[in-house]
Design goal:
Length: 231
């Protein structure tokens, strides 16, 4: 399988690209890290030309599996957010995934096989104070996933979203600093009293793109150490 992973130069995306079995096509903004992959394409998903060019690349390489992992996050009270902040979040976290899917599904339909995985967030399921744009974009992924799963089911294309909670990454650490809470205070809100490891997300993706999971589509799966259930 030809697997394209967005945001593959750090955090969750890097672990996904290093873990999955298949021919990996990595995209991201850090060209130095991208050069460590055999197949790579540098792109900023908030840049219209880069996004279009990445769509061309997806069609050219006949990608079978699209992992929409790249994301942007900002913690700010709504009354202090600027239009540029809002546009960056929505463009990166919602518009770009939908556009890349639109470029990938034509070939998937012809080959009658495709797997699309969107990396959402528990913030899109439950909401997060101080992250309204991020929560809105990630919630949008869930609705998009359901609609596309219905639209593409007859072509043997599955579409699912994984919603991580707090993840052991640099972004997770930065989010703690932005939140104003300590790590211990956040751990107290998580039933399992731990952060999710990126490899757990990668392993779930490996299952979802396998033939064993061909009947799973349109689903929003919370991988959050119990955070969505309560504390």
């Amino acid at each position: 399988m030809k697997i394209l992973v967005t945001g593959a130069t750090k955090g969750i995306g890097k672990v996904i690209a290093e873990t999955l079995n298949g021919e990996i096509y990595a995209t991201g903004r850090d060209k130095n890290i991208l050069n460590t992959y055999k197949n790579h394409f540098a792109a900023n998903l908030n840049n219209r030309n880069d996004l279009i060019n990445l769509g061309n690349y997806i069609e050219e390489k006949q990608i079978d599996v699209l992992i929409n992992n790249a994301g942007a996050y900002i913690w700010a009270n709504t009354d202090s957010m600027k239009l540029d902040n809002i546009e960056n979040i929505i463009n990166t976290d919602l518009t770009a995934p939908l556009y890349l899917i639109s470029r990938a599904v034509g070939g998937m339909k012809e080959r009658r096989f495709g797997r699309i995985i969107n990396i959402g967030s528990i913030s899109g399921v439950m909401g997060e104070a101080g992250a309204s744009a991020y929560s809105a974009a990630k919630s949008g992924l869930i609705g998009m996933t359901k609609a596309l799963a219905l639209e593409l089911a007859e072509f043997n294309i599955t579409v699912n979203t994984i919603n991580p909670g707090w993840v052991e990454t640099e972004l997770g650490s930065n989010s703690i600093e932005d939140s104003g809470f300590s790590r211990d205070e956040i751990l107290e809100t998580i039933p399992q009293k731990r952060f999710v490891e990126p490899v757990e997300i990668a392993n779930l993706i490996q299952y979802l793109i396998s033939d064993m999971a061909k009947g799973i589509t349109g689903q929003s799966i919370n991988l959050c150490a119990g955070l969505s259930v309560g504390c």
